[in-house]
TrEMBL record:
Keywords: Heme, Iron, Metal-binding, Monooxygenase, Oxidoreductase. One of its GO terms (biological process) is secondary metabolite biosynthetic process. Belongs to the cytochrome P450 family. Its cofactor is heme. This is Cytochrome P450. Pfam families: p450. The lineage of its organism: Eukaryota, Fungi, Dikarya, Ascomycota, Pezizomycotina. One of its GO terms (molecular function) is oxidoreductase activity, acting on paired donors, with incorporation or reduction of molecular oxygen. SUPFAM superfamilies: Cytochrome P450. It comes from Cytospora paraplurivora. InterPro entries: Cyt_P450, Cyt_P450_CS, Cyt_P450_sf, Cytochrome_P450_monoxygenase.
Amino acid sequence: MEFSGVLNGDKWKTMRKVFDPKLSHGIAMDYRTRFGREVEAWMDSLPAVSLKQSDGADDLGLVVDASTACKTLPFKLVALILYNEALSDAAFEELLELNNLHEKVMFKTFFGGAERSRLLSHLPTRSNGQMDEFGRKWRAFNLVMIKTAGERKRALTEVVKFLHTIDEILFANIDVTSSVLAFLLVNLARNTAAQGQLRAEILANSTSPEAYVQKTDTLLEHTCMESIRLCPAASGTPCIIDWWRLNTQSPVWQQGGHSGASFQPERFRSLSPQDYRWSFLRFGLGSRKCIGKNVSGVLMKTFLVGVLRRFDLQSVGPTSEEEMSETRKDRFTVTPDKRVRLLAL
């Protein structure tokens, strides 16, 4: 198995040389308008995932589980970049079915016991059967995409050669991206002041959305940075660098009267990138830096612009702005276990 996240040297350079141009900031900006339409369609579909409440507030807006609501949106947006017009509605439904199978395989990989046995890896177990089934269907799906692309076939012939990296981008990294979007909803619902300030900035820039999303000195940019800063790997996760401690307890985050554990996007207004260079990790380092980091920024900001122009976000249940949200135990990525109420503006 060869995918960019585990490669080094010339193999890593070859892999990134193929994918980096397809996932550049410029390409992501080219898709911003399409992203916006998909966010609107996603918001229209939210009633289908709205939860019944027992707090007497059923009629007040939509209440959603943040991680469940955000699960498929980034999956669709990144798939659009990878497959372009070849991705029909039917093809996306097939991708969702593949994702369900992929989740079963990954769950066994991370939480199973016998599945990690070298001996059992060669036996016809149910887990091995699911993994083989995914491999066959995944390859077949991409061959169909190549055929569907028609005149773009020449550009897509490398797809089969790099199936593992496409798998990594779509199925593994999207778990992370969907959690990032969910944490954005949760953090803004918990901090109504920051939410109000950001909405005011979004409305003030509604006549030039392209330029607004491109800027890196806005409250929109700082909100995305702040949410990522507060939501790295959970406490107790084995790691080389403790992202949580680095991103919250470094002295740079205690300046200006703010706690490093509080959600305060405006803290970045008084900090230069040099100030937090060694105190803030977002997309990894070196050859382990996220391959989709450029797309992620545009995706997050387009998501927030659409949501805050249409909804007011409220936290559901007890909460403390000084603590990290509860996380789900059935995911191998840090995923919030929190509900959010969305009130139409």
